[in-house]
UniProtKB/TrEMBL annotation:
InterPro entries: START-like_dom_sf. This is SRPBCC family protein.
Amino acid sequence: MTTFESNVKQVQAPQGTVYAKLSDLSNLARVKDRLPEHKVKNMTFDTDTLSMQAPPIGTITLKIVAREPESCITFGTTSSPLPFDLQIHISPVSETECQLKLVINMEVNPFIKNMIQRPLQDGLEKMADLLAMIPYTEND
């Protein structure tokens, strides 16, 4: 099993608020327009499932497979060129701030790992940055 981790990102919102927003994927409707169209196309989602075209990779569909209240959301692939799981870890910092980190686990041979390591790590960092910038409070 190969693991890829994003850097830890600071979020200016309480842990429970961030978890509540990210554990219901329909909340992504508010940030869908902020995603770069050349990186992610045809994004669709409901409460538990997210599907998108990510050129040149192809279509990726993720489904929430586990929720650990306020601390972790785990996604599994239902459609992907390479099956993987993605975890969003959320940790409290204070009553008004938390941290998040993304982790991908996948089975890949060493040759494939060398080919995908850099683009996958870059994509993971960009996704973590996007999740850290989401307006989590009702006022935003």
